[in-house]
Amino acid sequence: MTIQQTLLLNQKLKTTADKDLFSYYARPLTSKLLETMELAKHFYHGEGDYLFYEKDQKIHRVLDLTGGYGANILGHRNPHILAKVQEWHDKGSPSLTQGSIRQEAGKLAKRISDTLHQETGEGPWITTFSNSGTEAVEAALKHCLIYFGHKLIEVEQEIEKEMNVALIKIKRSHENIQAKFVRNLRVELTEKISDLKMNEERKSYFIHQINNALDIDELVSLIRDINKKQLSQRPGFLALEKGYHGKTMGSLGLTFNEGFRAPFYLGGDDNKTTKFISQYIDQLSFEKIIEDSKQDLIFISETPNGVGWAKHSFSLLAGAFVEPIQGEAGVLPVNTPFLALLKKFSLQEDFLLVFDEIQAGMYRTGKMASGTHTDITPDIYTFSKSLGGGIAKIAATSINNRKYVEDFGFLHTSTFSDDYFSSSVALEVLNVLQGENSPLTEGLKTADFMVARLEWLRSKYPNIIKEIRGKGMMLAIEFYDIFKEMGFEFKTICDSNMQGYMMASVLLNHENIRMSPSLSNNLTLRIAPSLYFTIIQVEELIQALDNMGRALNERNVAYFLSSIYPGEAVTNEMTDALKTEVTGERPISVFLCHLIDEAHIKKVTKSLKGVQGERLLRKLALPKDLAEFEIYHAQTIVDNNGVEMDVVMLGIPVTSEELKKTFTSRNKYKVVQKVQNAVDFAKEIGASTVGLGQFTSIVSGNGLYLNSRGMNLTTGNAYTISLTVQSAIRSAEEKNIDLKNSTVALIGAAGNIMSVATSLMADHVGKVIMLHHSPLESSLKYQEATKRILDEIAASKADSKVVEIVSKHWKDRDLLKFLNNEEVKEVFVASADITQIKEADMVLCGASASNGFLSLDLFKQNAVVVDVAVPPSIKPEMIAKIESERPDLTYHLGGVASIPQDQSLNFIVFPLGHNECYACMAETFSLGFSGKKNFLNIGDLSKDIVMEVQDISKSVGFTLGKVKTKSSL
To answer: What is a single molecular function from GO for this protein (predicted)?
Structure first.
């Protein structure tokens, strides 16, 4: 079938629903990443080093440098391998015949043994087959453990033999001499016990119990008990920093990247079985690690002078795992002196050395095992990936017969291992690689040529390309992080650690080259084509990389962004660079923030203004899963007392809507954890104060879900309420409203923010109308809120009609009786009747509804309306009509703060003018200037807290500036 025929058939079979099946049922988050970065291609055909996909009725041919993460050593659909598959089919060979002699598996195991013997001079090698690389590592790990266990059994038996010889000598002595032996042994142990390698609790127990051992039998019984405890300790492993060995539980325990381990309780202190070391460790430090792994067994032994104490040291290390070339770390070769030292210690302490050859093996570097280039031979090799020729799922764990434990082959089994199909395919792979027409020689020549061309490219772009690494057909190209210099548009990419995927997207969509970043080094692109790769294809790659290098050099924003926004009007404009440097020389206050909506994104990203809104937001939805808060802006400001402080904006490229969606979903914990991580980050950089800006306050339960880590932590709501009230009063005064005789209505007064605002407004006006969606008689929440408000008003020292009347009548605290008092009704009303706002000169709105619920005809002529609800209480279509239909109204969203000393926040993300900042920011910075410690302004507020924060802000120089006209959420 031709490619064109295959395409037509594929189109007939494909439905719209099929397109989303993988995303929905198989890999949801991975699919989001692929779709966001325009990497979600359906490759319907492969041939050699090329893949094919269809888009817009056009066939695209892609040069594949990912190579199945190194599995396609012979390319896609190698004819020799396909012929073997056909032969298997034609023969009618059975699939699974467990419990029988499987000849193909035997042939394959011998071939591997012979090949390893040829390369290492050691062997034979016993091979256990499995289905994947991580299973091969699991098998190696389990063999290390069973070998360790057998070793300790032998040690225990030898000690028992030595002790029995001594015991016989003692027991055949006279009773007086036996007693003398016991006394001497007890004294000798007391003198030597401090030098034993065992934990202090066990030493203490030993010395205590030995004093109770009155005869030799009790003493020997105690020794056996102590040794049993020593031998039952959990063994450990050595593994390399930056190493990767797979993602099953055992393999994860050996994998360095804590991001992979921690979710499965294998991170940090929880991973007590593995000690991660650097390949650049010095010998003395390495020797200390080995020494620290040792424990002592103690026994009595015959000596020339009679019987005495003896000890036997053993290491708790069961094995050491090393990738000779660390693939996921960015193709980093491990240095030979380190491997030699590791080999020395493995022989000295008798633990097993394992070389993980899953990526680097199978002739990718010219040899079956890449580690043999170093002339150092481990006890175990693991192979997979290319062993299956890109067709079969097979892995091999090959163990030197000298160290092989026969029980292992009986204890460790697998349903799908040793099968005829995968064994025969793997044999054919080796036939091709080792045969007369092997592509190995020419492939390695091409690899050398490719390295030379890549080095030429690096010399052309020395500030773009950091390093070329690897050997043979396992290479990597590492880039400097240029994207962080390319404006705010790339903040999402950098904060999500997706720079490598951005480069992969550009190469795939603009250059028809498929490359992938390393899992643990996203600025490194791997190069792992087949051994059939040609010089012509090398030049295809070089041309593509040259194009991308030039675009990076020129900071060509459009070249990169157009790959993830195909067909959109992306312009080649770069947003001003963010100022993110924090020196740590001054006090620090941190404010958490995020993007607001489509309009906000387009305001701060010059190149994306022409991108369709829905598509823009969909692309930005991914960071809510991947991105963490990072420094978006840092600058120094000074208060009215001359104190300098660094203010730091920790931002995340997630919109309010996405935060809200996550907060109301079952994944609420994720966004709360991100906010906590931001608080932790603030602590790390030395902040004294953290402000929960925008939705970070809402999604963290007004901060109640968070650990402040000993810093000041505030929602900023106190000063927000203060400026809301101040702005309402100022607006009323500007309209010549008689404040002392005015009426204020507060919508949503049962809520915390509006209830505090009610108490504050009562100090200034002639009448208060509280409004709640439910009648007072039927709402316990409304009743309790009203009582709290009346308590605060009654305690006020302000000179207002409301304070005067409430203080006079609110004594027995009988709420319904109080509200029915005729004199009280003149100054205080608690109602559910929304039409009563018609009486109000000022209206403060704090009750949210999805589309607003207030219309313009409800408001009194010439009223002041301050709407702090999110979303606004007034219907959106009505807000747009205020200027034309109700020009008499003064409508705004509260107050904006003025910064001390006429300073400004030069932060492009927020639409702030000269000398402006939001109230929640001002509260954060004021607390930072104040020098307060562990001040928690989270959860519900009270009038007293608002007044305290108001005084603090005033003392350092923050005051009410202009009114707020645009939402900061």
So the answer is: identical protein binding
